[in-house]
Amino acid sequence: MVKVLFVCLGNICRSPLAQGVFEKKALERGWEALVYADSAGVSGWHKGAKPHNGSIAVALENGLSIENQRSRVVVSLDNNEFNYIIAMDDSNVNSLLYEFGMNEKRVFLMRSFSKQKGDLNVPDPYGQANSSFQLVYSILDESMDSFMEYLKKNHSSLI
To answer: pTM for this structure?
Structure first.
């Protein structure tokens, strides 16, 4: 089984949405028994909280259900549990590598899989207008397609 952890700062905006997008795309590909996804934050500010209402709303608009997710903090055991740890921005990557001691071979930026060039950070929509959550969804949706292709090329079980 291929296991993926999506990580942002507080685990209420970007990473729960990324988890939902991943799960939907895995289901569409018939991979639901072959992959597992979770999300976490590098801070404990929102520990146990449901995703942000903006993330829930944009998820529902796009056919995803993320409202049952609950925020959790990254733990050192995640380093051994997950094949891929997908961070939303450079700050998250630094926290994963230097605060949590994650294996740098497992840590990736979400937008490093994007076909779009430029800034590789997924912008944090917290405290922003609802349109910011739609922008994040669009970035995740596009980047996730490329990530799924990457997984397919690197894991024979996903063909």
So the answer is: 0.95
Catalytic residue of the set 38, 78, 89, 124 = 124
Task: Give me the residue spans of the domains in the chain.
Answer: 2-158
User: Which of 8, 38, 78, 111 is flagged as catalytic?
Assistant: 8
**What confidence category does residue 128 fall into, taking pLDDT thresholds of 50, 70 and 90?**
confident
Q: Pick the catalytic residue from 13, 14, 38, 111.
A: 14
Percentage, residues of the chain above pLDDT 70: 99
Assess whether 14 carries a catalytic annotation: yes
Distance CA 15, CA 82 (A): 15
Q: Give mean pLDDT, residues 130-157.
A: 93
The question of whether 13 is a catalytic residue gets the answer no
Q: How many CA atoms lie within 13 A of 62 on its CB side?
A: 23
Single-letter amino acid code for the residue at 139: I
Nearest to residue 124, comparing CAs of 84, 146, 91?
A: 91
> Is domain 2-158 annotated with CATH 3.40.190.10?
no
DSSP 35: E
Is residue 70 part of the annotated active site? The answer reads no
Task: Average the pLDDT over 56-67 and give the result.
Answer: 95
Residue 129 has pLDDT above 80, yes or no: no
